[in-house]
Each structure stands twice: as C-alpha cells, then as structure tokens.
Amino acid sequence: xxxxxxxxxxxxxxxxxxxxxxxxxxxxxxxxxxxxxxxxxxxxxxxxxxxxxxxxxxxxxxxxxxxxxxxxxxxxxxxxxxxxxxxxxxxxxxxxxxxxxxxxxxxxxxxxxxxxxxxxxxxxxxxxxxxxxxxxxxxxxxxxxxxxxxxxxxxxxxxxxxxxxxxxxxxxxxxxxxxxxxxxxxxxxxxxxxxxxxxxxx
Length: 202
Known about the structure:
Helices cover 46% and strands 0% of the residues. It is mostly helical. Helix 1 (16-28) packs antiparallel against helix 2 (32-48).
C-alpha cells in the first residue's frame, strides 16, 4: 500500500497532492510558453477550490505566491507578480506575549479582574459606585453562565472584595439582578392549539 505518510510532505497541504503533482509537472515542461500556460491553468484550478475568496483583494496574488512556494521557486515562467521573499517565508514568527493565566476565579475571567483593579483610579464616588454595581452584575451573570447555577449577591460581593484585596468599599444599597433567563430552559415548540406536537415513531 502507498500511504501518504510514506510520501514527500506537501508544502501547502490545503491544496492536496493532486495540485502538487500538477505543479511538479509544470516544472518538467521544456517550453517556457507552454509552462506559463500550464501554470495559469493550475492557478485557475486553485482558485476554483476557494470560490468565496475570488472577490478578496490580492487573492490572485496570493495564489501565485502559493504556486511559487509549491514549486520550490523552481518554476521558470513569466510571473505576473513579484515572487515572495523566501527569507521572510522561512523566518520564524516572534513569540506572542501570552498571559500567565494566573487569576483567582476562572468563571469571571481575566478581563473582569483587570477592570476591577482600576476602579480605585476613579475619583468621583457616583461613577465609582456605578462601575462597582455594573461589574458585580457582570460577575453574577458570568458565574451563572459558567456554572449553570445561581449565586447569591453576598458571595459575588465577597469574591469581588477578594479580587481587589479589600481595596474598595462596596455600597450597601446595591442589589444585583437575578438573571433568571440564564438558567431558564429553552422555550418549547407549540402547535397552533398551544400544545406540544406529537412525534410518531418511525
């Protein structure tokens, strides 16, 4: 048996081995004019594989870049676009500054913690209390979406205080929303008579 694992690795696997064979064949054609015509035919097939991208800017340019990569830059034709920079292609991408992921309550997320830590930067008491109430409501909703269960306002305020290390005073008159719609079951499909339709067993 001839397995793909035993064959040469494809340079751009998204196009498949058949397209790669076409590109390899183009490289073997002796006449440059015929080679160029064959390359245009391959580009047309490659474009038909992604018809939804035809109107995307530089789509054709990208196809010719891919053809150059698949031919290992050995295809001698009249290229309609400048060849891509081989050094840039082989250059390793820089490491992304991923977050360390260390936060106290995963069901609230990192964003909520970052916002809560900046509440003390607000000097106006009314705006500060309004943001505390807004974030506490957001915390309660996030908890119920994540855990699929209700949570008391007292626990939300307690965990909020833990996040900010008791650096803010939570107003006593705050009452959070109940967010019952988060835990509500999906609405039932009813027929015209207001009853659930009966399904016959096949």
